[in-house]
Amino acid sequence: MTAINTAYTNSSATTTSTSTKTSASDKSLLGSEDFLKLLTIQLSNQDPFEPMSDTEFISQMANFSSLEQMSTLSTNFTNFSARQHQLSSQAYLGRQVTLNSSGSEVSGIVTEVSTGSDGGIYLTIDGTQYDSTTVTKVSLPASSTE
User: Fold this and answer.
1) If we measure between CA atoms, which residue out of 126, 82, 85 comes closest to residue 108?
2) Which residue in 6, 30, 5, 8 sits closest to 18, CA to CA?
3) Structure confidence at residue 54 as a pLDDT band (50, 70, 90)
4) Other CB atoms closer than 10 Å to residue 121's CB: what's the count?
5) Do 123 and 135 contact (CB within 8 A), yes or no?
6) Tally of CB atoms within 10 A around 4
């Protein structure tokens, strides 16, 4: 029994240091490789007189699979949302917009829509770029409504 506990402790320390290196180098959560390593260590160091039941093993695999799918869905939704914001911001082109910039109200026709290095969407009005998140009103230019 002592040999098993010692082996488990040593394996746990190795796993912890490996996980720490992985977490430090890439800020992601527990990956599939990490899960398989932990599962292998768990299976190889389990008490032979009390092995893990099949249902417990299947439950762990199902939980991990579900977690991985949710993580993928979250990443895909974030990417979709950013692209949707880029596409919808194109509707500002040629429109009269009013926005709040540094506490003052700015109004004018949008002549350009661009993506900044920070990933934000910027509108150009009279040669000056403004953050699209500060838009308070959008309308057709006066010449288009006549």
Assistant:
1) 126
2) 30
3) low
4) 19
5) yes
6) 13
Asked if 7 and 45 touch (Cβ cutoff 8 Å), the reply is: yes
**Residue 128 belongs to what H/E stretch?**
strand 128-131
pTM of this prediction? 0.48
Higher pLDDT, 32 or 128: 128
What distance in Å separates the CA atoms of residue 121 and residue 38, rounded to the nearest whole number?
43
What residues pair up with 97 in beta bridges, in sequence order?
108, 138
Same structural domain, 24 and 64: yes
**pLDDT per position as a tens digit, 60-112:** 778 878 888 898 999 999 999 888 888 888 889 999 999 998 888 999 999 99
Enclosing H/E stretch for 64:
helix 54-89
Residues in CB range of 109: below 8 A, 6 or more apart: 94, 95, 96, 97, 125, 141
Given a contact cutoff of 8 angstroms between Cβ atoms, the answer to whether 121 and 86 are in contact is: yes
User: Among residues 45, 70, 86, which one ends one of the domains?
Assistant: 86
116, 142 contact by CB (below 8 A) = no
Domain of 16, in residue numbers = 2-86
